[in-house]
Design a protein that fits this description.
The protein is mainly α. It has two domains: 1-31; 33-75. The chain has helices spanning 2-28, 34-74. The longest helix is centred in the C-terminal third of the chain and has 41 residues, at 34-74.
């Protein structure tokens, strides 16, 4: 029974130490200002739409070509 209580005590001790270290590390983080955050968010959204459009276009071109090739191979 004392081994179990010792494990619980160590768990809470380690948890408190983890929270302490996490708070300390969060003070060292270089957080972006609002302008940087908005600009990088816009870049990400534009990139997602660009690559989505690009992949859809490639899919529209490659799918019929693959169907044609596979239909010729299967006879």
């Amino acid at each position: 029974m004392s081994g179990f209580l010792e494990k619980i005590k160590n768990f809470f001790k380690n948890f408190v130490e983890f929270i302490r270290e996490t708070r300390k590390e969060l003070h060292n983080v270089s957080w972006p200002n609002r302008r940087e955050l908005v600009s990088t968010t816009v870049v990400v959204i534009v990139s997602v739409f660009f690559f989505g459009f690009f992949l859809a276009l490639v899919d529209l071109i490659v799918s019929p070509a693959m169907r044609f090739i596979l239909s010729k191979l299967s006879g």
